Please model this.
Amino acid sequence: MGFDKDFQRLGRYLLLTTVLAFVAVPALAQAQVQPDRGNVVAQAGAVVAFDIPAQPLTGALTAFGVQAGYQVSVDQASLAGLRSPGVSGRLTSRDALARLLAGTGATFRFTDTRSVVIEKPVTTGTAPAGQKNEAGPVILAPVTVTATKTAHAVDDVPANVSVLDREYIESRSPSKVEDLLRGLPGVDMEGGPRRAGQDVNIRGFGGQQVVVTLDGARQNFDAGHKGRFFVDPDLLRSVEVLRGSNSALHGSGAIGGVIAMETKDASDFLQPGQTAGFRTKLGYSSVAREPQYSVGGFARLDDRIDLFANFTYRDSGTMKQGGGRELDYSAEDIANGLFKATIRPDENQKLSLSFIQFNGSGTQPTNSDTAPNATSNPVVERDTKMTTLAGNYTYENPDMPLFSPTVKVYRNELSVRENRIIPATLRVDESFLVTNGFDVYNTARFGTGDVDHAVTAGIDFFNDSQKGARTTATGTAERSTFPEAEGQVVGYYLQDELSLLPGLTLTPALRYDTYNRDSSTISDFEESALSPKLAANWRALPWLGLYASYGKAFRAPSMTEAFVAGTHFFGNNFISNPGLRPEKAKTAEGGVRLKFDDIATAGDQLRFNTTYFHTEAKDLIELIVTSTTSKYTNTADATIKGFETELQYDMRQAFFGLGASRIRGDNNVTGNPLDSIPADKVTATIGGKLEDYGLRFGWRSEFVADQNRVSGTDTTGGVEGAVLATSGYVVHGVFMSWLPVQDWLAGFRVDAGVENIFDTTYRRHMTSLYEEGRDYRIAVSYTKGF
Model:
């Protein structure tokens, strides 16, 4: 009933936004309507038969110009050393260019009916010796493969996707993955400032309701009060954030969205003509007196094999919260290593192999997201080790458009050892989780009449095997709070991207999953789920895009939720519940994108994106805590709705960004607000560029409103303890990046800034700990190739 009404609200929202686009920005629109501008769009949307094999990017663009009949303008020096994956099949020129440029960082702009400009600003890495970093526009259309499992510019997918590239990651001088995600609309972090307790929340869904991957490997660790991010952000080249229900492609857990992290490789550092080199980086964060050391090497063998190895280490002391107070038991040491090999047997094949090892150690509360307590939250010496092995193979042959397979395989091995020291009685808890999985799919491209298809069919599988042990003075036994159990999920999916008209794509998808959970002591269970999705993307005008989607998603109960037993806290015991039903959600969303170039000055860019969504969720799993028992139970049906908006403007001398999100959620059973909904927030960034000096600087602010929409403190309804309302806060920071243009400083880079510049004391919603105080950060890196 409410869902149908919200379809009407969604329609009114899209209509209003579109009308405003026509009425409020006529001058901007007029600036885009130059002679024959409509023909430019028509020409770019015309379907052409392409047959361009994988090759150096400059050669691929030359072939594109011949086959599409375009004059291609490009600075070949800026594209030297880059390779194109090629493209084949009947496509629009716009889609063909997007595929040719996938993964290169380059963008394109149609200037008339037969001309296109390829732009590749040198904003990442370092300029070759004797060459200035001529930073052009930084608002690009990054490529996403998470949204549809095929490469598209984010402007051309029917979803709200954020792609954080290497330049963004470097410029933030991040200490934790949280530093990268916190400013995104609709995205928040849970668990407080300690790394070990942090997890992500997207649109009010957190924990296992969001799929997290690292080089394609699912991160499935599920233990109360602990997070899932076991990687140093210095090793990341990109992070994709896909919001909304996406089980049709990503299976169990993709209710709130997907976080896909990818590590760096040798191509991120090798300049044209180089075959080997090294990188070093020294950093410091004052809020925890944390030095960072990073060193790596890279090589290219016979133009077919790329090798990259990197080691990073952080020695973090006791953290200071806002106002100068210290967060007890927050010190830790983090060591993270990466080895990655990329092999190209020929122009059509690519094989990537990753080995990632994370080691963390520190003295912290066993529940990292709360304060220590001798009775319910003892202090432990914790050692965490995560090893990830991942392989990714792709084949793309322009002579075989029906056969473009991708094969991903992975294995995670996680161990957590906690030796209790306060109170000082012998107790050592150990947790082990092994995840094995694969995702195999093929994309076939063909035409039927005037309709072009990209049909992706695949199967993915993962198996989780966990066990826990506890050692006391009486010996070692199974730890029932992290029960020995095994679970697996198998999913079969099909998606068809139909190019119906120039600029209009319709994408239906369907997935069928089966899952089971096995325990040696409790009855097993097996279930299945069907996840359909229908999405559309329409580039109505050169400056106007519309998109909408409707999809269903599910999350299978975790092994801990189903089989947990033993003592929760003094006088309270867990009760297992193998009869848990899967969480389910259905989401309708729609959005508007605006895109304007050359508005006030030549080369400036304005980008605007707004999305409205409505989610109906059922059978949400909650931990029901009474005076003597704790049990995971399907209790809540909920309605969650809201909007996310982003605005970016960039010119040669300056840039500006604005983001906002407002989310509301209610428990349809109790009528109370959902406690997991983040507060309303607005983020703003403004800055300048001195390109002759390789300097970029700015100010960013985060404005967060009071979050008083909570269920209250009544524990009879299943709330574990008091649910705290959260006061609003404002946090400011400054930043600077310097890539020297002088020959004798070639290879150096300096990133610096101050976070929480006014040392504000604040607490995020659903977190009992106050966040970090003023933090002076600096990182100096040097890259040298030969």
